[in-house]
């Protein structure tokens, strides 16, 4: 019985960690007209309130796309940065024409929210030998509250020729302390879904 309790405890602990951290797509839209017609050269645009954040995000996205065999270009490298960081449509169109990009991908922060998380006293884990005892004790111990940030980013991929939406996704990231972690995770899940839907080629 004691071994079974340990197994159950391990299973619950691992499930708790997986379910309370990470990044996933919570919303997604795919234009079926573009499935099976992979894009090969993407202009990356990040919408940020600070220039250094925009540059960092775009460079990471470009590097990740190139790592899977897709040509990519950072808008910060080829379009003059205006004081308000807002790019004009004409500048974007001139850029994709000059560098022959076939798609533009745009990412922005959709929302940031604080969520209260109630955590039980960990001492109850050592007070019971059976699974039932552990769960009962855990559920009835007083807990404490903490706040976790939930960050949602929206990413849209557009066809250059028609300006139509090819793919759109909203990512949800939670329990990440580092902004770099959030960025890396979001880029990874976006690229994986683009590959899954044959919108960019597999390397």
Task: Describe the structure in your own words.
The protein is α/β, with parallel strands linked by helices and 203 residues long. It has one domain: Rossmann fold (3-Layer(aba) Sandwich), CATH 3.40.50. The protein is built from six helices and six strands. It has helices at residues 2-19, 51-67, 75-78, 89-99, 131-140, 179-196, and strands at 22-30, 41-47, 71-74, 103-120, 143-159, 165-174. Strands 1-6-5-4-2-3 form a six-stranded mixed beta sheet. α2 (51-67) packs parallel to α6. The longest helix is centred in the N-terminal third of the chain and has 18 residues, at 2-19. The radius of gyration is 22 Å and the shape is globular. The protein starts with a helix and ends in a 7-residue tail after the last helix.
Tag the structure with descriptive keywords:
single chain, 203 residues, alpha/beta, Rossmann fold, 38% helix, 32% strand, globular
The CATH superfamily is ABC-type transport auxiliary lipoprotein component
The CATH architecture term is 3-Layer(aba) Sandwich
Low-pLDDT regions: 1-20, 121-132
Which sequence of SSEs, written as H and E, runs from N to C? HEEHEHHEHEEH
Number of domains: 1
The helix content, as a percent range, equals 25-40%
The gist of it:
By secondary structure, the chain is α/β, with parallel strands linked by helices. It has helices at residues 2-19, 51-67, 75-78, 89-99, 131-140, 179-196; strands at residues 22-30, 41-47, 71-74, 103-120, 143-159, 165-174.
